[in-house]
Amino acid sequence: MQSVLRICAVAMTLTLGAPIVVWASQQVVGGSVESLLDYAKESNPEFASMRHEADAAGERIGPAGALPDPKLRVELMDITRAGEQSPTLSPSRVGSTVYTLMQDVPWFGKRDLKRDIAALEADGAKGRAAGTWAELSSRIKSGYAQFYYVHQNERLTREVLDLLSRLEKVAQVRYAGGLAVQSDAIRAQVEQTNLRNELIALENEKRMTQARLNMLLARPADAALAAPERLRALPEPVNLDHAALQDRVRGRNPQLFAEDARLKAAEKNRELTYKNRYPDFTFGIAPVQYRRSVREWGVMVEINIPLQQSSRRAQEREAEAMLSAARSRKDATANQVLAELTENLSGLDAARRTEAAITNSLLPQTELTLKAALASYENGKVDFATLLDAQRQIRLAKQNQIKAQAEAQTRLAAIERLLGEEL
Fold it and tell me: Which domains does the chain have, with CATH numbers?
């Protein structure tokens, strides 16, 4: 009897106290967060659409600064030759034919400003595409951390269920020998029933987590995922300096990059609006054909007269207002991003410290408590309820350890989303 209890004690301590190892699945997608990110980068339609929009915006730069197409005007003069002939459209038979080739030319600097605006809008589109990927990858990382937590919790619960089954047999043997009461075995059975109910909830949560991950991967919701094998290593504390990360966020955050591009584009647009006070030009050259030869040449210059000053002043006020809006929007985005950075850094530090406290202090303490409870139960000094309580404490400690690991990964994903790159 004592040897059976000792075997159970050793098995329970090793199972609940040691890190859980998950064997790699044969499936490629899902075993690691890197595999999910690689898959999503190629298959997610939202990210693909943002990339294509950024490519399209880049193609607008050249046309924005190009001259408009030239125009050719053909005028057939005196098509009846003063009534001597029937009307005709043949250039060699009319009185004269004027060919006017015209080219519109904007005021000095307008083309450069339009090109600069298009380039800044392309930068903004790239920033939005990068922001889309940062958001998508953060959701995948967080979803994977939750998937890992549920998977590990489910595995832990099944192992505890198996151990309780063995403890129930031990209690039955002790009861048969007159060393324990029948209620010990019944308590073990009740505990097993509770764990089976927990497994139902965990299996449901696991399916929902898989469905969310598959949605992000643009896969069928019920597509299988490999069992999560590991979590990413957390960065060293020296790489999480608050001031340094704030500077990195200001320089690399995709949202701030896009808002900065929008602000610069608004400044250029204001400058372009003020240049509309000045006229644009149209230059032309006009050879005149008589019969079958060109005998005259003419040149022309045409300008538009900017008389509608009230309309232009309204456009200028609009440009100023849009510039002010862009400045305010950038400031608001910067405040939000930096506040989120501070919040997630604090959360990551708390999760890291919680895991360390559980690993270095709580788990060893609960292991000792379980061993003492097993020894006391073996000697008849404590009842079975005390043994079950010790088992619950070590299981809860292990669950909290996994939860802290998942929370740290979620916070890390949020920080990397703000940075727009991995730490």
Answer: 2-66+112-278+309-419 (1.20.1600.10)
